[in-house]
Write a structure and sequence with these properties.
heterodimer; A: mainly alpha; MetI-like fold; two-stranded antiparallel sheet; 2 strands; 70% helix; B: D-Maltodextrin-Binding Protein, domain 2; D-Maltodextrin-Binding Protein, domain 2; 2 domains; eight-stranded mixed beta sheet; 18 helices; globular
Amino acid sequence: MTAVTAPPRSEGAAKPELSDRARAETRLGQRLVAPAIVLMLVVTAFPMIRALYLSLFSYSLTAPEDREFVGLSNYLTALTDSLFWRDTFVTVLYMLVTVSVELVIGFVFAMVMHRVVFARGVIRTSILIPYGIITVVSGFAWQFAFSFQNGFVNDWLPFLDTDFNWFGDTTPAVIAIMVSEIWKTTPFMSLLLLAGLAQVSEDMIEAAKVDGATWWQRLWKVILPNMRAAIMVAVLFRALDAYRIFDNIFVMTSGAVNTESISFLTYRQTIEQFQLGIGSALSVLLFLSVLVIAWLIVKLFKVDLAAARQEG
Amino acid sequence: MLLCTGLAACSGGSGKPTLNWYVNPDGVDTLKALASSCSTADYDIEIQLLPSGATDQRTQLARRLAAKDSSTDLMSLDPVFVAEFANAKWLERLPDDAASKATDDDVLAGAAETVTWDDGVYAFPQWANTQVLWYRKSLAAAGGLDMTQPVTWDQIIDAAADNGGTVGVQANKYEAYVVLINALIQGAGGDIISDNEAGKDAKIDIDSDAGRDAAAVIQKLASSKAAQPDLTTSNEGTSLGQMFGGAGEFMTNWTFVYKNYEGLVDSGDITADEFADLGWARYPATVEGEESKPPIGGIDIGVGAFSKHTDFALEAAACVTSSEAQVDLAVNEGLMPSRTSAYETPELAEAYPPDLLQLFSESVDSGGPRPKSSYYATISAAVQSVWHSPTSVDPDKTPEESAKFLRDVLDGKALL
């Protein structure tokens, strides 16, 4: 949503001649953003390069003298370890399930927020409340809710024993973590989708109505195709977020019963074990996998990020 | 200046320096009193609280020290962190006179052992924790055990199983499970690693007869009727409740148990008769005829290597670990002393039965520490990962498997 839209491209390949004034403005602009770029390089590029460098060493913070260069062997260790692949699988599972559920519920919420005619402010606010709650707090709240000692979930589900331990086994624990994650971030999804809904022209919907389209047909043939870009951006943002899931796992199970994600594995190596070498290697791998997922979503679903931002 | 409002370290260049003492949240009231009584005309000591979990405490201190924090003057350390921190050069090595005072003859051997690393002394023992065998006298009598003599794990498991009782241990996947495994292995004359100062090249001894003896005890308990239902997630608190229900239990647990049950009499949760049925004995032996090695815990006081006031901090550390300080901690908070002289004071004689005091000091004196290593966190986690769950422990496989895994992890060939 930039205030200034890019100038429309001229038909020919040749660039239009820039006036002195335009050139001077460009130079001024570059000088003005330079400090910000330098700052960004310091706070983002430096840690990334440092992580890349550290990942080539066997290096424990508590045995600094034993530090030795080991080349790519940390990557080899990680990529040949079954734990790494198990955690990757669990992470992908978290991502797929939470994003799909959030997309559906988030869309329903977006429709409600878009169409609601009474108590608009109250309804919109209440839908957004979970997103305003800190993830750690939401994790604790759901941990208590699922706890068999003092939680309510077992009482509400008639097919479960009242002393069913949600955190005793992988499947129920993963479900509990997903529920907390979905509850917390669905509002974010619905906000992004609401922006998309607002883009769909009322004229088109009305035209479809006049042509005799049912509600279902209007949804599938008019509304969804017209907000495709917004949906894909929402999926992209949430998928990248979900792949880095950490807080809920940390609070609810501390990674026990095989619920840990790749982020959690990285955290354990670096922060708990002080193994900076293998920890950095894992964080580089995590970074690369996030890049791959972003690339896959952009390519497979042909997301046009510029279109989503209503540019050009 | 605005940044300084929340930080005690910002006392400025002029005036009296403030020493920050990072403490774990055990017995904080008494620690605060110690901090103020040990403050002098030259410096003030201020308490800073660490998180309650051992892992979080270690992480927070390590983050400060790795960044060469000059405001970390004094710190309360779990004994297993001393070697790690000393090796990373985060702890001030005590000068000779302070070192000999910190580990003089008055200090119980097990506690003195925890503060040494690589021929140096790096901390002052403050209080010492140890495990003893707590049991119902009636259950031991029903099992025909003579508790005045050392008992073995086999004996107590059988006695409990045959008489409707249970055996309580700590076997969740956490540090206290390593405490159990280490005590069992040391009780059989072995150890988890040796040549500890070689760091990741330490010799791994867990795949030995002692390792197999330890695994056999865990296997026997896990498959016995005497196992408690929550064995695989048991911790220091879970088995407390089993003592006075039904036939009762044998339980290996830390020193706090006595004051805990005594408090229950006062609040009316158990009767005085039940409390009188509580017995205590030395930690059980892994193999008959071999002396047991009770676990050692507690707190050592280290001085930060990057402190701006090392001399003051050393002086303060000696003050907060004095015999008088230890008596206060024991009487007010139930944290047992690491100095013999403290056990002999009238205050302690009033607070604890004499034979229990004798048992505590003897256990600390002859106890076995967990492996001292700059890779302790890694070693502990690797052992937990193979030996948990206790129901899957097999003497023929577990020690061998854990030795191999530990080697791979230390060599950076496997993820933990």
